[in-house]
Amino acid sequence: MTEEAPNVPKGQPASNIPASRQEQLARVVRYFERNHGRFTEEVLAQRAREQGYPSDVIDEARGRLRQLDATQPTRSRARRWILAAYVLTFAVLVIGMVTNEAQRSISGVGAGVLAMTLGIAYLISRRWLRWRGRKLIDATTGFTMLLSVPVILLVIVAGLCVASGLPISLNSPDGATPAPAEPAPAEPAPAEPAVSNFRIEV
Question: Exposed site from 22, 70, 79, 169, fewest CB < 10 Å?
Answer without folding.
Answer: 22
